Amino acid sequence: MRKLTAVASGIAAIGLSVAAAGGATENVSPIYGVSLPEGYRGWQMITVAHEAGKNNDIRGILGNDIAVKAFREGTRPFPDGSVIARLAYVYKSSPENDAVFPTPQSFVAGAPTNVQISVKDSKRYAESGGWGYGQFENGVANQSEPLLKSCFACHTRLDRSKDLVFSQYSP
Amino acid sequence: MRKLTAVASGIAAIGLSVAAAGGATENVSPIYGVSLPEGYRGWQMITVAHEAGKNNDIRGILGNDIAVKAFREGTRPFPDGSVIARLAYVYKSSPENDAVFPTPQSFVAGAPTNVQISVKDSKRYAESGGWGYGQFENGVANQSEPLLKSCFACHTRLDRSKDLVFSQYSP
Protein backbone atom coordinates (compact mmCIF):
# COMPACT_ATOMS: atom_id res chain seq x y z
CA MET A 1 0.00 0.00 0.00
CA ARG A 2 2.85 2.31 0.89
CA LYS A 3 4.45 1.47 -2.46
CA LEU A 4 1.23 2.19 -4.34
CA THR A 5 0.90 5.53 -2.61
CA ALA A 6 4.45 6.40 -3.50
CA VAL A 7 3.81 5.51 -7.13
CA ALA A 8 0.61 7.51 -7.14
CA SER A 9 2.43 10.52 -5.64
CA GLY A 10 5.08 10.16 -8.30
CA ILE A 11 2.46 10.24 -11.03
CA ALA A 12 0.80 13.24 -9.43
CA ALA A 13 4.15 15.04 -9.26
CA ILE A 14 4.81 14.33 -12.93
CA GLY A 15 1.30 15.49 -13.75
CA LEU A 16 1.93 18.77 -11.95
CA SER A 17 5.21 19.47 -13.67
CA VAL A 18 3.71 18.71 -17.07
CA ALA A 19 0.89 21.10 -16.25
CA ALA A 20 3.35 23.77 -15.14
CA ALA A 21 5.34 23.39 -18.32
CA GLY A 22 2.42 22.99 -20.72
CA GLY A 23 0.03 25.45 -19.15
CA ALA A 24 -3.07 23.70 -20.46
CA THR A 25 -4.18 22.24 -17.14
CA GLU A 26 -2.64 24.74 -14.76
CA ASN A 27 -4.72 25.84 -11.81
CA VAL A 28 -5.78 29.13 -13.38
CA SER A 29 -9.08 30.79 -14.24
CA PRO A 30 -10.47 30.62 -17.77
CA ILE A 31 -10.36 33.80 -19.89
CA TYR A 32 -7.92 35.59 -17.56
CA GLY A 33 -5.42 32.90 -16.53
CA VAL A 34 -5.42 34.13 -12.94
CA SER A 35 -3.92 31.82 -10.30
CA LEU A 36 -4.24 31.79 -6.54
CA PRO A 37 -1.35 33.97 -5.34
CA GLU A 38 1.09 32.36 -2.95
CA GLY A 39 0.74 33.61 0.60
CA TYR A 40 -2.46 35.60 -0.01
CA ARG A 41 -3.95 34.41 3.30
CA GLY A 42 -1.28 36.40 5.12
CA TRP A 43 -2.00 39.66 3.27
CA GLN A 44 -3.24 42.73 5.07
CA MET A 45 -6.95 43.32 5.50
CA ILE A 46 -8.59 45.98 3.35
CA THR A 47 -12.10 45.69 4.76
CA VAL A 48 -14.89 43.29 5.73
CA ALA A 49 -18.42 42.85 4.38
CA HIS A 50 -21.55 40.76 4.53
CA GLU A 51 -23.45 39.76 1.45
CA ALA A 52 -26.97 38.59 2.17
CA GLY A 53 -29.26 37.27 -0.57
CA LYS A 54 -28.09 34.31 -2.62
CA ASN A 55 -24.49 34.64 -1.44
CA ASN A 56 -25.26 34.73 2.28
CA ASP A 57 -21.63 35.02 3.20
CA ILE A 58 -19.33 37.09 5.38
CA ARG A 59 -16.05 38.13 3.88
CA GLY A 60 -12.63 39.50 4.48
CA ILE A 61 -11.01 41.46 1.68
CA LEU A 62 -7.21 41.29 1.68
CA GLY A 63 -4.66 42.94 -0.57
CA ASN A 64 -1.04 42.56 -1.53
CA ASP A 65 1.31 45.40 -0.57
CA ILE A 66 0.74 47.33 -3.82
CA ALA A 67 -3.04 47.17 -3.46
CA VAL A 68 -3.06 48.06 0.25
CA LYS A 69 -0.79 51.05 -0.35
CA ALA A 70 -3.10 52.26 -3.13
CA PHE A 71 -6.16 51.83 -0.91
CA ARG A 72 -4.51 53.74 1.95
CA GLU A 73 -3.34 56.57 -0.27
CA GLY A 74 -6.49 56.69 -2.38
CA THR A 75 -4.55 56.03 -5.61
CA ARG A 76 -6.97 55.46 -8.51
CA PRO A 77 -6.72 53.81 -10.90
CA PHE A 78 -4.93 51.09 -8.98
CA PRO A 79 -1.34 50.57 -10.12
CA ASP A 80 -0.40 47.48 -12.10
CA GLY A 81 0.54 44.66 -9.76
CA SER A 82 -2.30 45.37 -7.34
CA VAL A 83 -3.97 42.13 -6.28
CA ILE A 84 -7.12 41.90 -4.19
CA ALA A 85 -8.22 38.64 -2.55
CA ARG A 86 -11.84 38.36 -1.44
CA LEU A 87 -12.29 35.48 1.01
CA ALA A 88 -15.91 34.46 1.62
CA TYR A 89 -17.26 32.21 4.36
CA VAL A 90 -20.69 30.84 5.17
CA TYR A 91 -22.54 33.46 7.23
CA LYS A 92 -23.80 31.72 10.32
CA SER A 93 -25.15 32.58 13.72
CA SER A 94 -23.05 31.50 16.69
CA PRO A 95 -25.03 29.80 19.48
CA GLU A 96 -21.72 29.51 21.41
CA ASN A 97 -21.22 33.26 21.42
CA ASP A 98 -24.91 34.05 21.89
CA ALA A 99 -24.94 31.93 25.05
CA VAL A 100 -22.66 34.45 26.77
CA PHE A 101 -24.24 37.62 25.37
CA PRO A 102 -27.34 39.39 26.63
CA THR A 103 -29.21 38.69 23.38
CA PRO A 104 -28.77 36.48 20.29
CA GLN A 105 -26.62 38.75 18.16
CA SER A 106 -23.48 37.02 16.99
CA PHE A 107 -22.82 36.04 13.39
CA VAL A 108 -19.51 34.51 12.46
CA ALA A 109 -17.60 32.97 9.57
CA GLY A 110 -18.39 29.32 8.89
CA ALA A 111 -16.78 27.14 6.25
CA PRO A 112 -14.97 28.92 3.43
CA THR A 113 -17.06 29.17 0.27
CA ASN A 114 -14.74 30.64 -2.31
CA VAL A 115 -11.85 33.03 -2.85
CA GLN A 116 -12.00 35.58 -5.64
CA ILE A 117 -8.79 37.14 -6.92
CA SER A 118 -8.61 40.41 -8.87
CA VAL A 119 -5.33 41.25 -10.58
CA LYS A 120 -4.56 44.68 -12.02
CA ASP A 121 -2.58 44.58 -15.24
CA SER A 122 -3.63 47.39 -17.53
CA LYS A 123 -1.97 45.87 -20.60
CA ARG A 124 -2.79 42.19 -20.18
CA TYR A 125 -6.38 42.90 -19.16
CA ALA A 126 -7.00 45.98 -21.29
CA GLU A 127 -10.30 44.57 -22.52
CA SER A 128 -11.73 44.24 -19.02
CA GLY A 129 -10.74 47.61 -17.62
CA GLY A 130 -7.30 46.43 -16.58
CA TRP A 131 -8.51 43.71 -14.22
CA GLY A 132 -8.25 39.94 -14.50
CA TYR A 133 -10.38 37.68 -12.35
CA GLY A 134 -10.29 34.20 -10.85
CA GLN A 135 -12.50 32.26 -8.47
CA PHE A 136 -11.23 29.36 -6.39
CA GLU A 137 -13.05 26.72 -4.36
CA ASN A 138 -10.80 24.72 -2.02
CA GLY A 139 -7.84 26.16 -3.86
CA VAL A 140 -9.06 24.97 -7.26
CA ALA A 141 -9.77 27.43 -10.06
CA ASN A 142 -13.41 27.45 -11.12
CA GLN A 143 -13.47 26.72 -14.85
CA SER A 144 -16.87 28.22 -15.64
CA GLU A 145 -16.48 30.82 -18.38
CA PRO A 146 -19.95 32.33 -17.80
CA LEU A 147 -19.08 32.77 -14.11
CA LEU A 148 -15.82 34.52 -14.95
CA LYS A 149 -17.51 36.73 -17.53
CA SER A 150 -19.97 37.83 -14.85
CA CYS A 151 -17.11 39.36 -12.81
CA PHE A 152 -16.36 42.16 -15.25
CA ALA A 153 -20.03 42.53 -16.20
CA CYS A 154 -20.85 43.34 -12.57
CA HIS A 155 -17.75 45.36 -11.61
CA THR A 156 -18.10 47.57 -14.68
CA ARG A 157 -21.43 48.86 -13.40
CA LEU A 158 -19.71 50.65 -10.52
CA ASP A 159 -19.00 54.37 -10.62
CA ARG A 160 -15.91 54.96 -12.77
CA SER A 161 -14.06 56.66 -9.89
CA LYS A 162 -13.85 53.28 -8.14
CA ASP A 163 -11.71 51.71 -10.88
CA LEU A 164 -14.03 48.67 -10.96
CA VAL A 165 -13.45 47.87 -7.28
CA PHE A 166 -16.27 47.42 -4.78
CA SER A 167 -14.21 47.61 -1.59
CA GLN A 168 -13.31 50.74 0.27
CA TYR A 169 -10.49 50.74 2.80
CA SER A 170 -11.42 50.52 6.47
CA PRO A 171 -8.87 52.28 8.70
CA MET B 1 0.52 81.50 13.58
CA ARG B 2 3.20 79.17 12.33
CA LYS B 3 5.25 80.05 15.41
CA LEU B 4 2.33 79.34 17.74
CA THR B 5 1.78 75.96 16.11
CA ALA B 6 5.45 75.12 16.51
CA VAL B 7 5.33 76.06 20.19
CA ALA B 8 2.16 74.01 20.66
CA SER B 9 3.80 71.02 18.97
CA GLY B 10 6.79 71.42 21.23
CA ILE B 11 4.58 71.37 24.30
CA ALA B 12 2.73 68.33 22.99
CA ALA B 13 6.04 66.56 22.38
CA ILE B 14 7.20 67.33 25.93
CA GLY B 15 3.83 66.13 27.23
CA LEU B 16 4.26 62.84 25.41
CA SER B 17 7.75 62.22 26.70
CA VAL B 18 6.71 63.02 30.27
CA ALA B 19 3.83 60.60 29.88
CA ALA B 20 6.16 57.94 28.53
CA ALA B 21 8.55 58.44 31.42
CA GLY B 22 6.00 58.89 34.19
CA GLY B 23 3.43 56.39 33.01
CA ALA B 24 0.53 58.11 34.75
CA THR B 25 -1.02 59.59 31.63
CA GLU B 26 0.16 57.07 29.05
CA ASN B 27 -2.33 55.91 26.45
CA VAL B 28 -3.11 52.62 28.15
CA SER B 29 -6.20 50.89 29.48
CA PRO B 30 -7.09 51.02 33.16
CA ILE B 31 -6.62 47.86 35.25
CA TYR B 32 -4.49 46.13 32.58
CA GLY B 33 -2.21 48.86 31.24
CA VAL B 34 -2.70 47.62 27.67
CA SER B 35 -1.64 49.96 24.86
CA LEU B 36 -2.50 49.98 21.16
CA PRO B 37 0.25 47.85 19.57
CA GLU B 38 2.32 49.51 16.87
CA GLY B 39 1.48 48.24 13.40
CA TYR B 40 -1.55 46.21 14.47
CA ARG B 41 -3.52 47.36 11.40
CA GLY B 42 -1.09 45.43 9.22
CA TRP B 43 -1.48 42.17 11.13
CA GLN B 44 -2.90 39.05 9.52
CA MET B 45 -6.61 38.38 9.63
CA ILE B 46 -7.87 35.69 11.98
CA THR B 47 -11.55 35.90 11.07
CA VAL B 48 -14.51 38.23 10.50
CA ALA B 49 -17.81 38.60 12.34
CA HIS B 50 -20.98 40.62 12.63
CA GLU B 51 -22.46 41.58 15.97
CA ALA B 52 -26.06 42.67 15.74
CA GLY B 53 -27.98 43.94 18.78
CA LYS B 54 -26.60 46.92 20.65
CA ASN B 55 -23.19 46.69 18.97
CA ASN B 56 -24.48 46.58 15.40
CA ASP B 57 -20.99 46.36 13.98
CA ILE B 58 -18.98 44.34 11.49
CA ARG B 59 -15.51 43.37 12.53
CA GLY B 60 -12.18 42.08 11.44
CA ILE B 61 -10.13 40.16 13.97
CA LEU B 62 -6.38 40.42 13.44
CA GLY B 63 -3.51 38.82 15.30
CA ASN B 64 0.21 39.27 15.76
CA ASP B 65 2.46 36.48 14.47
CA ILE B 66 2.39 34.56 17.76
CA ALA B 67 -1.40 34.62 17.94
CA VAL B 68 -1.92 33.74 14.27
CA LYS B 69 0.49 30.78 14.52
CA ALA B 70 -1.38 29.52 17.60
CA PHE B 71 -4.73 29.90 15.83
CA ARG B 72 -3.47 28.02 12.77
CA GLU B 73 -1.93 25.22 14.79
CA GLY B 74 -4.76 25.02 17.32
CA THR B 75 -2.40 25.74 20.24
CA ARG B 76 -4.41 26.25 23.45
CA PRO B 77 -3.85 27.89 25.80
CA PHE B 78 -2.41 30.66 23.65
CA PRO B 79 1.30 31.28 24.28
CA ASP B 80 2.44 34.39 26.12
CA GLY B 81 2.99 37.21 23.68
CA SER B 82 -0.15 36.45 21.68
CA VAL B 83 -2.03 39.65 20.87
CA ILE B 84 -5.45 39.81 19.24
CA ALA B 85 -6.84 43.04 17.78
CA ARG B 86 -10.58 43.24 17.18
CA LEU B 87 -11.44 46.11 14.82
CA ALA B 88 -15.12 47.05 14.73
CA TYR B 89 -16.90 49.25 12.21
CA VAL B 90 -20.44 50.55 11.89
CA TYR B 91 -22.50 47.88 10.11
CA LYS B 92 -24.20 49.60 7.22
CA SER B 93 -26.00 48.70 4.05
CA SER B 94 -24.38 49.82 0.83
CA PRO B 95 -26.75 51.47 -1.66
CA GLU B 96 -23.76 51.84 -4.03
CA ASN B 97 -23.20 48.08 -4.11
CA ASP B 98 -26.88 47.23 -4.06
CA ALA B 99 -27.40 49.34 -7.18
CA VAL B 100 -25.33 46.88 -9.21
CA PHE B 101 -26.62 43.67 -7.61
CA PRO B 102 -29.85 41.82 -8.43
CA THR B 103 -31.25 42.51 -4.93
CA PRO B 104 -30.43 44.72 -1.94
CA GLN B 105 -27.95 42.50 -0.14
CA SER B 106 -24.71 44.30 0.57
CA PHE B 107 -23.57 45.31 4.05
CA VAL B 108 -20.20 46.91 4.51
CA ALA B 109 -17.93 48.49 7.10
CA GLY B 110 -18.70 52.12 7.89
CA ALA B 111 -16.79 54.35 10.29
CA PRO B 112 -14.57 52.60 12.82
CA THR B 113 -16.19 52.32 16.26
CA ASN B 114 -13.49 50.89 18.47
CA VAL B 115 -10.51 48.57 18.59
CA GLN B 116 -10.20 46.01 21.37
CA ILE B 117 -6.83 44.52 22.18
CA SER B 118 -6.31 41.26 24.08
CA VAL B 119 -2.78 40.51 25.30
CA LYS B 120 -1.75 37.10 26.62
CA ASP B 121 0.66 37.24 29.54
CA SER B 122 0.01 34.40 31.95
CA LYS B 123 2.04 35.97 34.77
CA ARG B 124 1.11 39.63 34.46
CA TYR B 125 -2.58 38.84 33.96
CA ALA B 126 -2.83 35.74 36.15
CA GLU B 127 -5.96 37.09 37.84
CA SER B 128 -7.87 37.38 34.56
CA GLY B 129 -7.02 34.03 33.04
CA GLY B 130 -3.79 35.28 31.51
CA TRP B 131 -5.37 37.97 29.35
CA GLY B 132 -5.14 41.75 29.61
CA TYR B 133 -7.61 43.96 27.78
CA GLY B 134 -7.81 47.43 26.28
CA GLN B 135 -10.38 49.33 24.23
CA PHE B 136 -9.47 52.25 22.00
CA GLU B 137 -11.61 54.85 20.26
CA ASN B 138 -9.77 56.90 17.64
CA GLY B 139 -6.55 55.52 19.04
CA VAL B 140 -7.30 56.69 22.58
CA ALA B 141 -7.55 54.22 25.44
CA ASN B 142 -11.00 54.12 27.01
CA GLN B 143 -10.56 54.86 30.71
CA SER B 144 -13.79 53.29 31.97
CA GLU B 145 -12.95 50.69 34.61
CA PRO B 146 -16.44 49.11 34.52
CA LEU B 147 -16.08 48.68 30.75
CA LEU B 148 -12.69 47.01 31.12
CA LYS B 149 -13.97 44.76 33.91
CA SER B 150 -16.76 43.60 31.61
CA CYS B 151 -14.16 42.13 29.18
CA PHE B 152 -13.02 39.37 31.49
CA ALA B 153 -16.51 38.90 32.96
CA CYS B 154 -17.80 38.09 29.47
CA HIS B 155 -14.85 36.13 28.07
CA THR B 156 -14.71 33.91 31.15
CA ARG B 157 -18.17 32.56 30.36
CA LEU B 158 -16.84 30.79 27.26
CA ASP B 159 -16.05 27.10 27.25
CA ARG B 160 -12.67 26.57 28.96
CA SER B 161 -11.21 24.91 25.84
CA LYS B 162 -11.31 28.28 24.06
CA ASP B 163 -8.83 29.90 26.49
CA LEU B 164 -11.17 32.88 26.90
CA VAL B 165 -11.14 33.70 23.18
CA PHE B 166 -14.30 34.09 21.10
CA SER B 167 -12.72 33.94 17.65
CA GLN B 168 -12.00 30.83 15.68
CA TYR B 169 -9.57 30.89 12.79
CA SER B 170 -11.01 31.09 9.26
CA PRO B 171 -8.77 29.38 6.71
* Main beta-sheet strand count, sense and barrel state of chain A: 6 strands, antiparallel
The quaternary state of the protein chains shown equals homodimer
- What share of the residues of chain A lie within helices? 25-40%
> Rough shape of chain A?
globular
Distance between the termini of chain A: 54 Å
Number of helices of chain A: 4
What is the level-2 CATH architecture name of chain A? Answer: 3-Layer(bba) Sandwich
Q: How many structural domains are formed by the residues of chain A?
A: 1
**Average predicted local confidence, pLDDT of chain A:** 89
N-to-C order of helices and strands of chain A: HEEHEHEEEH
Enumerate the spans of chain A where pLDDT stays under 50 for 5 or more consecutive residues. 1-24
> For the record, what CATH class of chain A applies?
Alpha Beta
Record the strand order, biggest sheet of chain A.
1-2-3-4-5-6
Instruction: Report the radius of gyration of chain A as a whole number of Å.
Output: 19 Å
**How large is the share of residues in beta strands of chain A?**
25-35%
Keywords (chains A, B): Signal
Pfam families (chains A, B): Cytochrome_P460
Protein name (chains A, B): Cytochrome P460
How does this model look, in words?
Two copies of one chain form a homodimer. With 171 residues, chain A is α+β, with helices and mostly antiparallel strands. Chain A has a single domain (27-162), classed as Cytochrome P460 (Chalcone isomerase). Helices cover 26% and strands 29% of the residues of chain A. Chain A has helices at residues 2-22, 65-73, 95-98, 145-155, and strands at 44-51, 57-63, 83-93, 106-120, 131-137, 140-141. In chain A, 33% of the residues are buried. Mean pLDDT of chain A is 89; it is low at 1-24. The interface between A and B is large, with 44 and 44 residues.
